[in-house]
Design a protein that fits this description.
The protein is of the alpha/beta class. The chain has nine helices and five strands.
């Protein structure tokens, strides 16, 4: 899909202001990605969202009381933070984030879009994003968290003299997906499929998938569980 600099995340009840934001930004020349408009017909919904977030420079989060109750929005924000995509909450109601969102948003800059009407707030958002996007994009940050794992080069095995095709048993893929889903939810299916295409083997795939988990302790548990499955089959 074509990369678009702004990903708009919203709960279903906030569809109208979300698409109002998109209309205002695109009228000013700022390209946006928003579901369901930009999900290709017949495409894997989760895969499209993951790729769009990864390609964006900023996520505009339409924030309201319903946002706190949306698991889908929380997963999108988690992916953005994990991919080091800037998150800009655009509050359309005077509410505070739930504890599950506060962890990701407490240090972010907020734009308040009340009282109505929304149009002046859309204009302010557009001006802010124009300034933000005009700055040079930062180089992708190297993972610096303690215990973060560097994935092996795609298509090769450590110590091998040539390219080694990935030979991963379907049962292993299914188990790795199940283990990863326990930490990041249904996005695991897409991430396992994508990583398996370039992994040198099961061990390489485990390490690649572990980078998708934020917590060092949870990464370790994931790796240990997957390696145990490789050793014992259960």
């Amino acid at each position: 899909m074509p990369a678009r600099p702004v990903f708009v995340s919203y709960s279903l009840s906030d569809r109208e202001p979300a698409f109002g934001i998109v209309a205002r930004l695109e009228a000013s020349g700022i390209e946006c990605w928003i579901a369901p408009r930009d999900v290709a017909p017949g495409a894997d919904w989760a895969a499209e969202i993951v790729e769009a977030i990864a390609a964006a420079r900023v996520m505009v989060l339409v924030f309201s009381s319903s946002t706190n109750d949306s698991p889908q929005v929380r997963r999108e924000v988690e992916r953005a933070v994990h991919r080091r995509v800037a998150v800009l909450p655009f509050r359309i109601e005077e509410v505070l984030p739930s504890k599950s969102l506060e962890y990701f948003l407490s240090s972010q800059h907020w734009l308040d879009a009340f009282p109505p009407p929304l149009e002046p707030h859309y204009l302010r958002l557009s001006e802010y994003l124009r300034t933000f996007l005009s700055a040079p994009a930062a180089a992708p940050a190297a993972a610096t968290a303690t215990g973060t794992f560097a994935a092996p080069s795609a298509g090769t095995a450590t110590g091998a003299t040539g390219t080694v095709p990935a030979l991963i048993d379907p049962a292993q893929l299914k188990r790795f997906e199940s283990e990863l889903a326990g930490y990041i939810g249904p996005l695991a299916r897409h991430l396992v499929k994508r990583a398996a295409a370039s992994a040198a083997g099961p061990e390489s795939l485990i390490v690649m998938l572990a980078t998708e988990i934020e917590s060092e302790a949870e990464r370790s548990r994931f790796i240990n569980a997957c390696r145990q499955f490789l050793r014992t089959g259960h």
